[in-house]
User: Fold this.
Amino acid sequence: MMKTALGRLRVIGMIEGISLLVLMFIAMPLKYLADQPLAVKYVGWAHGILFIAFMLAAFVAYMKYHWPFKRLVYAFLAAFLPFGTFVFDKWLRKQEAVSS
Assistant:
């Protein structure tokens, strides 16, 4: 799956989506309810790096597959919404099936 630009985008998207969920639903409650701010610090850093990797992978796929700019915008928006990268991945698979 990591051999193509689309495969890399999908894998990084899954990991980035999981990191966002961990940040929002585990690390943030630990910070504010259990006074454990280090969880947000470390998970936040990891999520930030994964967000950048996702956007770079999306840009590479945009350039390689000559996507319309709108698809790159959808990838960007998906990275901000909980479960967004999972929905985007499902949409990507559907688009990939239609184009093959």
User: Anything to note?
Assistant: The chain has one domain: 5-99. Helices lie at 5-33, 38-64, 69-78, 84-99.
